[in-house]
Amino acid sequence: MSKSSSTTISRNRAWSGRVLGQARHNGHALGLLVLAVMVAVMFSALSPSIYATPLNVQSIAFAVPEIGLMALAISIAMTTAGIDLSTVAVANLAALTAAFVSLQGQEAGMSTLVVSVVAVAAALAVGMLCGVLNAAVIAVIGVAPILATLATQMLLAGLAVLLTEGRPIYGLTPELTAVGTGTFAAVPTVFWIFLLVIATAAFIMRRTGYGLRATMIGANAVASDYSGINRSGVIFRTYMLTGTISAVAGLVMVMRTVSAAPGYGSSYLLLAVTIAVLAGVNPFGGRVAVWGVALAAVVLQMISSGLNILGYSAYIYQIVQGLILVGVMILRVEGIRAVALVHRARSGGAADPVPPVIDRPYEEGHDAQSSSGAAYSSHTHQG
């Protein structure tokens, strides 16, 4: 094979990877937006006097941030082919820390503004330390992420009950209470915080060297080792990041409810995992969809609100979650397969055959070179 032919094939392979990756990302985002519109129209028709009111929309916006942030933490861990099952426990421990510091500071007569700052800093520090614990067990000891974070989840949940004797903590500062229950431009302040964290995470995962390295490790860990990437260092930063995001979720919880309890949000874990996968994250690593997580969280909360207004039980909501997840995954796979067939038809068979349509890694938003590199390493890993 001549050098020019080899170059043409390589370019076609890279172009194919970019097309399929962009199709996956754009198709997912568009599908979630269409689903959100359909849900809004359906429930507005079924309950026009309640569902479409500003009060209900605001209620949905209040409820989305905490579960959305937990799903974001899990999705970032999934980028490196890992998972963080401790996110709810970390969020609870951070919330308890903020509530405890707030209560103690006010009882000591300190300025409530100073107490608020210290409480937030302490909660974030707790989340980061929990992330370091997860990272040490995974990267240093070598325990599988699902087992390591399951163990830390049980450890942290038990620690929270032990320290509080199972009792909730009340007494948040007025400043934190105002943030959790207030609005800005008719939108809950906690939702603005959620959007800020989402935008920051999107920048980190799309525009930084760490984001690219995390994606490459998830796409093909062996190839990343040969590329000289410090896998342990990336894993450490990943779980420190997920721990910090979980702590922000805990702060949102405690500010919104003006209290903290060890067992709060016990049912959030499976919902957060569902949101992450529904958003388009590859559970096997190599792809993260930050804005997709935000959209998926909003869609599922819209459905939850609608079913609650209509008087259906929480079990019906669980069934609907499963049906939506299966349906979206089927549409996703069929859509990618259609794009692959169109590309092959247009290329006239000159390019390499497109590999079978499976969940190949692709990091949304990276430049063309890194996108094709991730796709190519995925093909090699599958072979």
Q: What is the annotated CATH architecture? A: Orthogonal Bundle
The ordered string of helix (H) and strand (E) elements is HHHHHEHEEHHHHEHHHH
* Beta strands, count: 4
In the CATH scheme, what's the topology name?
A: ABC transporter involved in vitamin B12 uptake, BtuC
Structural class: mainly alpha
CATH class: Mainly Alpha
- Into which percent range does the helicity of residues fall? over 70%
Q: What is the residue-mean pLDDT, rounded to a whole number?
A: 83
Question: Care to give the gist of this entry?
Answer:
The protein is 76% helix and 2% strand. It has helices at 3-46, 54-79, 87-107, 112-141, 145-164, 174-181, 189-207, 209-219, 221-226, 231-257, 268-278, 290-309, 314-347, 368-382; strands spanning 169-170, 183-184, 187-188, 259-260.
What does this protein look like?
With 383 residues, the protein is an all-alpha fold. The protein has one domain (19-382): ABC transporter involved in vitamin B12 uptake, BtuC. 76% of the residues lie in helices and 2% in strands. It contains 14 helices and 4 strands. The chain has helices at 3-46, 54-79, 87-107, 112-141, 145-164, 174-181, 189-207, 209-219, 221-226, 231-257, 268-278, 290-309, 314-347, 368-382; strands spanning 169-170, 183-184, 187-188, 259-260. It has a two-stranded antiparallel sheet with strand order 1-4. The longest helix is centred in the N-terminal third of the chain and has 44 residues, at 3-46.
